[in-house]
Known about the structure:
- Helices cover 28% and strands 23% of the residues.
- By secondary structure, it is α/β, with parallel strands linked by helices.
- α9 (277-289) packs across α10 and α12 crosses α14.
- The structure holds zinc ion.
- The site of zinc ion (ZN) has 4 residues, from loops.
Amino acid sequence: MLITDVQVAGQRALVDVRCTHGLVSEIGSPLQRVQGEQLLCGVGAALLPGLHDHHIHLLALAALYNSVQCGPPDVANAEQLAQALRAHVRKGGRTGGQSGHQPEWLRGVAYHESVAGPLDRWRLDEIVSDRPLKIQHRSGKLWIVNSVAAELLALDENANLAGVESDSRGRPNGRLFRLDGWMRAQLAQDAQAGPSAMPALSAVSRRLASYGVTGVTDTTPDNGEFALQYFVRAAAAGDLLQDVRVMGDDTLPQSDCMQIQRGERKVMLDENTLPDWDTLLAIFARAHREGRAVAVHCVTPAELVLTLSALRAVGVRRGDRIEHASLVPAEVMPLLREVGVRVVTQPGFIRERGDQYLQAIAASEHGDLYRCHSLLHEGIPLAGSTDAPYGDCDPWAAMRAAVQRSTPSGMLLGEAERLNPEQALALFTSAADDPGGDSREIAVGATADLCLLDRGWESARLRLRSDDVMATIRRGELIYHRERQDIAGLVICER
Ligand SMILES: [Zn+2]
């Protein structure tokens, strides 16, 4: 691939960038296009390192993203129900038949009879018949499935199972009471084939690609072998476009898939049930012995101080990290600096929850919230993340929040912690295994993970908007282009 006329590393002079075998192979001006080479015209725009979201929960995000609200207030009648489900299919659900994939499950939640009375499989077939559909009742105890789903579940063969409702002729009508575990087990047998009880990742992965995201770190604490294998399979199927660093518990195995790598040992702390000192030391020491760094969830000052003290006692391993560091009192800063551990923060929470913080947290502590500038000033490596789905998954929104520090109602929160746009961008451009370290460079020999904007940095820095992302390239391959749906082998422009 040849990317022409782009700004690299903030330089105003435009260069061409060639990617070969997943790496940046040449940078110059001008470079001659090789016959058959994919061409992407930058027309003076900024070419950035692909973004890395250092703390996200992919499966939870996908479950949320893939769910259609099927009850009030979003949906009030049968017509709106059909509209909502069909709109979701159009928005992101892939249709069947593509490179042997099974169609993705469509998942509805929060249904109530006030919308369209009792539902059964045949009524659902009238709305969606080309893919499996399951809708959960608001009570949580009932799922209603369409006929494609009933077939995947082998429902007709299980008509006598307690909880399977049948019509007057004895045929299962698609209404399943308290059978969540059974449904999961039925589908797990078929997980290899495609549709499964796990949420499909493709729509959410494409969304992240549209933001310029080429890698994420999944920080879900109970990630184990099952989750890792699910990511590996999704990557092999082409459903997962990003590199994923997977944190998890002790059972998380190594991965031999280049796209999916095992990451740190995640340690959850809860101020009300903090582990005793020796237990915590043992957890840290064991992870280090096994060659893994630790990533410790620290929201409160007590959690932070305990963690820092324990890390000081066992010795920090390169890569050890504090997740969130939501409140860092000034008096803890010297300890943080001394221990030398890195911090993965979520400035987006200021933009999303800032007004709640202003109410719930004492004014004297407002300056301690999601610190950014003071951590950088103290030389503490700082990386950024969205914590989606608990925060908005758009990293550009998080960058804006880091620059603006304004709450939903427009109040300023932690003005002294503001970053400039370059610092905000850098939160998302350090390497997966070096959060808060130097930004990855666009240089010959570097992995070609890139994000092409539609304008120069001098203009983009004033907006920090994901709308400005024109194309996203991971390991030298286009994974997103704003104006083209079909990106395989595409020549974007002629020169
Ligand atoms: Zn999280």
